[in-house]
Amino acid sequence: MSEPETTAETALLRGCLTEDREAQRKLYQLYYGYAMSICVRYSKDAEEAREVLNDGFLKVFTRLNQYDSNKPFKGWLRRIMINTALDNYRHNLKHYHLHDIEEAAPAAESYSVEQQLNYEELIGLVQRLSPAYRAVFNLYVVDGYTHEEIAETLGIAVGTSKSNLAKARANLREALKRAEIDEYKQNV
Q1: I need a labelling partner for 165 at 20 to 30 A (CA). Which of 21, 55, 110, 156 fits?
Q2: pLDDT band, very low/low/confident/very high, at 94 (cuts 50, 70, 90)
Q3: End-to-end distance of the chain based on CA atoms, in angstroms?
């Protein structure tokens, strides 16, 4: 359940509605970490994530009059950041290079990794996925979209969404397997 807005947050939102630069700066600072955690999941690197974040906040500030103050601001912000990241994905789709077929093929065997990864390592592995796999993985696993919603959002078939998720998981399993082997070699 979302927390209700604080009076300080309400004051910041009112200030942003009047285009008060100081209120905009404070709102940006207040939600920077939260918004960046969303953007980095959908981006290939930190630089792209910052671009998505800034584009997202620009949308927040220019569309704040559309925000329903009866609902949590954080949820509205989250939706804008996800949609901005997906817009960025669609815009850059023609620039992304396709992975070699062998590299994109799912692993033949299931592999369970007991190694504990920290957040940065896991995000790094997700960022190495192809843009299509990364988008579907994040939408399905992290943000809870259905394959039907993903297909509609990305303009792909439901089967493609399911296939991309399976391939993303297989690629992540393989990356985890390689990470475990590398760690083992370092400790021997």
Answers
A1: 55
A2: low
A3: 47
The candidate with the shortest Cα–Cα distance to 174, out of 98, 97, 109, is 109
Q: What is the CATH number of domain 99-187?
A: 1.10.10.10
- Give the CATH fold of the 7-94 domain: Rna Polymerase Sigma Factor; Chain: A (1.10.1740)
**Tokens for 101?**
């077929």
Q: Is there a contact between 42 and 52 (Cβ–Cβ < 8 Å)?
A: yes
pLDDT digits over 142-183, tens only? Answer: 888 999 999 998 889 999 999 999 999 999 888 888 877 777
Three-class SS string for 78-123? HHHHHHHHHHHHHHHHHHCCCCCHHHHCCCCCCCCCCCCCCHHHHH
